[in-house]
Design a protein that fits this description.
Layout: H1 2-10, H2 14-33, H3 38-63, H4 68-89, H5 100-116, H6 122-137, H7 143-167, H8 172-184
Length: 185
């Protein structure tokens, strides 16, 4: 395990990140479809949350060369959202805290990091930023009118990033160049 994290520090591992994203999507959708089977649903949903924790760590390392502090802040928001989500699955989450309070900023910060990066297309930054704004709007009364559209935007944004990471990966040369510049700073 230690070797895997050491490798993540030296390598963008974009395709691995994309595959973990895919497994997250598959388990999250399966968990929703299994809502009628509480024990199985709980297990699958906890697995999907664990996958999102792993995804968060991989995204942190992927964007650390862009801005270490912003990448860490994004990771902390995501981990807080994952914690609230996991607690909600076992009926221990405070009822007044919605995980989207954390996933919205996570998506916004990820959009910012993509925009500042030199190794992923900026169109994905725009999509992730829209997703982050959408998750935050979900916390307002406007969500009653826009829920379907906000979910579609969030799904399309994260699906697009996931597919890009699996199919294209990142420009490794530019990623390493940005990592070298970050180490010097």
């Amino acid at each position: 395990m230690r070797e895997w994290f050491a490798s993540a520090k030296r390598n963008p591992n974009a395709r691995i990140t994309g595959v973990v994203y895919l497994f997250y999507f598959l388990t999250a959708i399966s968990g929703a479809l299994l809502a009628g089977r509480p024990r199985l649903s709980l297990t699958v949903n906890l697995i999907s949350t664990a996958l999102y924790v792993a995804l968060t760590i991989l995204i942190y390392y992927l964007f650390k060369p862009v801005d270490k502090i912003v990448s860490m802040l994004a990771a902390l928001f995501s981990l807080a959202g994952c914690t609230i989500t996991a607690l909600a699955f076992v009926d221990r989450a405070p009822s007044h805290i919605n995980p989207l309070m954390f996933f919205g900023p996570f998506c916004l910060l990820t959009g910012y990091l993509i925009f500042r990066s030199t190794f992923i297309p900026h169109i994905l930054a725009g999509l992730m930023t829209l997703a982050g704004l959408g998750w935050l709007i979900f916390l307002t009364p406007l969500a009653n009118y826009l829920a379907v559209y906000l979910k579609v935007v969030g799904f399309v944004a994260e699906l697009s990033l996931m597919l890009w990471l699996i199919i294209k990966g990142v420009n490794v040369h530019r990623w390493r160049e940005q990592a070298r510049l970050a180490e010097r700073a």
